[in-house]
Amino acid sequence: MKDETCIPVKVALQLMDSSSLGLARQYQSFRETHQDLQYALQAIVNDHHQGFNSSIGAFHSIMRSITTSQAKVRELRESLIKAKEELSTSKPEVKNMVDNSQRYDAMLQTLNSIEQLQLVPDKLEARISEKKFLSAVELLGEALKTIRQPDMMEIGALSDLRAYLGSQESSLADILVEELHNHLYLKSLYCNDRWQAYSGKNAYIPTSGGRALHKFLDTNDFNQPVNAHASKNPEADSLSYVRLLLESLNNLGHLPNAIATINQRLPVELFKLVDKTNIEVDQRHPSSLTGLKTRGYHGKTVDLGLNENDVRVTIIHDLLCTLYSKFEAVMEGYRVIYDVVKGITKRSDFLQDAESWKHGFAEVWQLIQSEMRSLLHDYLTQSDSRSAQSAAPKGLHNVISNMVTGKTPRDRNKIIFKLSNTDINSMSGLKEDHEDLQHILKASVPGLVSESLRPAVSTSDNNNASDGAATGHKLLIEPSVFNISLLLPPSLSFLNRIKEIVPSGSGIVLSTLPSFLDDFLVNVFYPSLEDTIRDVFNQTTGDLDAFHEDVNWAHVSRKPIMKGTIAFLNLITAFCKMLDTIPPDQAFGQLTIDLLTSYYDKCYEWYKELIARHHSEGAEAIDMKASARWTQSDTVRSAMAAVWSLGEETSIEPLKRETEVEMNEQASNKITSSDLITDRKVIQSLCILCTSMRWLASKVVQLRHIEDPENFSRNDGGNSGRLRRRWTLIDSVRPQRDENKPIYLPMTTETVSAFDGVVTSFQELATSILFTLHAEARCRVLYHLDKCILEGNYCLDNPVLTPDANVLALNTDIVWFDEDISNALPPKEIAFIEYGLGALMDHILVSQASSIKILNQDGAERMKLNIMVLQQNLKNIDESADLSRASKFYSLYGRGMDDLIANAKAGKLEFTYNELKVIVELYFSEAMNNRRESSSALQARRSLNENLLALSEIMWSL
User: Fold this and answer.
1) Residues 6+ apart with CB under 8 A from 524
2) Which listed residue, of 86, 574, 695, 913, carries a Cα 20 to 30 Å from 826's Cα?
């Protein structure tokens, strides 16, 4: 229907057509569209009607305004003409009116000035509260200048306002000084971007990018006055705010006094800064995790330094990195003061004394290095001078007394209570007075109330006690000389960074910044290091359980190690790690060698105590066990060394030589029960001591490192003891030691020979213990078999099916001996200790058969039973054990003399003439000792002589 060619009749017919070709189905929508158009047309008509009516009224109003304006213009023209005529005529009364007007004008100006002065307090308070101190000083200065004019001085009503403005001058100066301190010592929240909180490892490594201080110094001209931005928060930029405060103080005329006040408050404010940082770090890391004061009377521990995963490492890193970052920010603030005051001095005539602000920068550095020195002293040294009364009770008497009574003596250096800790809210009267005082301060000194009434952090309670530290701050971790590796890198990094802050004209030589650390090293650290190391050594190796098996030995070795050995190696390793952070010194290498020698002496004394032989009489004090005597005998030791050197090789000659030497020792000094080590704990201790010595020697030898002699620090002569090479001149500061880097002990060619000698001593002690255990096993065999042969009854009336008691005792000893050494020694040492036991038994049973008094057939069978029991038991230890020779030897008894002579003649016997002679004598021993039938004894003797003669002829003929 929008088309111009549309025919309405046609469309109407289509809408009436209900067929499929018609549009009857759209008729309803057509009606709705028609109705909408009607409504829209009616709305348009209504809108245009109202506009037409309004336009008619507006036209009539405009016509009336034009007519009125024309009439007023005519009247104004007539008035101007009349005024011109009157002014051209001279009148005396006009002059009087002019004078009165001038007087009234002066009075109005005075009233206006008074009105403006009355508005000054509100404006001044508003600007102070908004921290717009530059405009506040300008406003106050103009007000004071105005109110102190002669005509204003005559107005008595302004005396109170004049007194108020005068007091506000000093109050504003105090506020400016307080604000300056807030930003100098980082009390304001807007200073948080000037220092960096600890963010993890390597936090003290300088970050890339320019320093904000340098950007500030480069973009500001201090020779020109500063202009404050009205729309900008003045505290947003802390360094610019410091300059604004200084400029405000200068405009106020209080800059010299403010600088003097800053210098006077410097020690106190710096102490508060350190104390606050210390408390914050302590609160971030609860004291229950620091391990401080964890040493009890029974639970003594030794601190050998902290590993990287220890929470105390995080604590000390957090403390140092945070504190040094704040120290940097403080020095940056003083650098801004230095440059701003220097610029003010150049453009001002009244501020000519520049020594005060130059001295301030040097003084802040002196106090910071004093805090650093005290901090290093507290965390490195455990001096008895540090609050002896605050330490635990000294002496056994005090300890026992405290344990019995359950009381702990109070530290009289700690404050029990403090008035500043009073709870104001709990006292209604005091609360009202406090509120009144707060309102008065807000009304008289705006902006100062929040600082003056800010609750101070109390550090006098028991939880935040200083623990006797030299700095007066609480110690967060246990002091130890091994903390040098944690303290030194951030300290050196801090010293390198502050070189960028020190101004050229401050009187501080940059090359001397780390000199106080050199003095601390020489005068404090080095003297206490040796004493501390020796004390820790005595504590580590002097415990009663130092020679006992360590419960955690599996973490460091395959076999059990002594607790003291592991602790001693940890001490040496921690000492070498610490030496890696400072230049090498020959004294440290010698100290380590002395410690190794001392520990060797302790272990050797322990070995001597283990192998000591106590006489029951008590007349002879102490002697050694038989196995230890054999080990110290050159002949026996050389024979054992030959067997030990075989290793996995098999050779009979060294073993025969050893057996021969040991049989000679047995013949010259017979082994008794007191010569044996019967206590299994002693055997276990010897095994653990042997393993510990070999393990320690293998670990210590890895520390061997020969350093260039030029790298060692040496004394320059004289009595000062100053080192020729300064330890702070380290080019690259390593934030952390690489745990994968090998640990070395730097030594010279002279000291390394002594070091090798001590390591060899440990190896030799281990070898001596191993030889002792080897000899102990053989001594048991000699002792029990000797008793078995000498005391055993082998002339039996009836067959006996049980072996000799000494054989059973020997088997029992061998079983538990093997069990003990198997649990504590490596396989090679075990094989050496048990090597040749079967051959020794075989040799003893044959060579000592002559000690048997009487032997019959049942006795020979029992001896063979003994041999079988011994062999079966040895098979569990050594599968190659073979006692067949001894078994064959006693089997000759049952075969008779004819068979023996026949086999000897045929050369089938593997025994010597002396050995065969013994078996022949034993064969006739029963008949020869028959006292009832003397004839049979004589016949036996004749048979003995005949068989011996025949045997002799046969053996000599072979």
Assistant:
1) 376, 377, 380, 381
2) 574
